[in-house]
Design brief:
This protein has 255 residues and is α+β, with helices and mostly antiparallel strands. Helices cover 27% and strands 25% of the residues. The chain has four helices and 15 strands. Strands 8-7-9-14-15 form a five-stranded antiparallel β-sheet. The longest helix is centred in the first third of the chain and has 24 residues.
Length: 255
């Protein structure tokens, strides 16, 4: 969600990382549950309602609800909506793609993960967008390890995106995660190799390529939250919260 950060780079203790991972497990389970519900004919509000119930049943609190006034439990963004879509009476249709951005607060620690899902059978163009955007997440994560430059993540993501002629949204980015949903540092999806601060073991960051099938340019809707592609082309978004380790990373929003 919107970018308000604490102002220091915060290496987490093993105990803190364990709690973020527990939070991340709830986020992961919520994704798996909601994924099983996605089909033509359901509303985005139904997805949001089910997300709120599921997170609470598993001991968490939806981090998004009330965050800077955000009105829903999670973000549900359809087709050309890049991020921050608000659950409503909108009905999902065969061929749509829908991004669920789920954030959970558990025992004082947040986790954050987004995934874009097909609704029924989707076009080859949309399949390709989802495939490559998910690949970009893991290509970016390959750059994560102790001592690596932060901007290598974005450099790798944008290099991959441009190879396949996709747009990289520049006004939005990944971020640190911990006691706050958005902490330092900014994790850009573009940049120059071997620039930026150096990652350190114990840092926790969310890496999240937000990729468009056309131009990278975006607009914000009148609800002051939903961000859409300016050209109306579809967008995909994949995100994991990870801990930096000595020789790589540990996914905290997985099983």
């Amino acid at each position: 969600l919107s970018m308000q950060y604490i102002s220091f780079y915060d290496n987490k203790t093993k105990e803190e990382i364990a709690l973020i991972k527990e939070s991340g497990h709830i986020t992961y389970l919520t994704h798996q549950y909601l994924k099983s519900l996605i089909k033509p004919g359901i509303t985005t509000k139904y997805i949001d309602d089910e997300a709120g119930k599921f997170i609470r049943e598993h001991g968490g609190i939806p981090s998004c609800l009330g965050y800077e006034g955000y009105p829903r439990n999670i973000c549900v963004s359809v087709n050309d909506e890049v991020v921050h879509g608000i659950g409503s009476d909108r009905v999902l249709k065969e061929g749509d793609i829908v991004t669920l951005d789920i954030c959970t607060l558990y025992k004082g620690y947040h986790s954050d993960s987004a995934w874009t899902y097909p609704v029924g059978k989707i076009s080859r163009e949309n399949e390709r967008l989802l495939h490559h955007t998910e690949k970009m997440l893991f290509v970016g994560l390959k750059e994560v390890k102790d001592g690596a430059h932060l901007n290598n993540i974005g450099a790798r993501i944008s290099e991959y995106a441009h190879k396949y002629h996709y747009g990289v949204v520049q006004e939005l980015c990944g971020h640190g995660v911990g006691r706050e949903l958005h902490e330092d540092p900014d994790v850009l999806n573009y940049g120059k190799y071997n620039t930026g601060m150096k990652l350190k073991t114990g840092m926790v960051i969310a890496v999240e390529p937000m990729i468009t099938a056309g131009s990278r340019h975006i607009n914000i809707l009148d609800d002051d939250w939903t961000i859409v592609t300016r050209d109306g082309k579809n967008s995909a978004h994949f995100e994991h919260t990870v801990a930096v380790t000595d020789d790589g990373y540990e996914i905290l929003t997985g099983e």
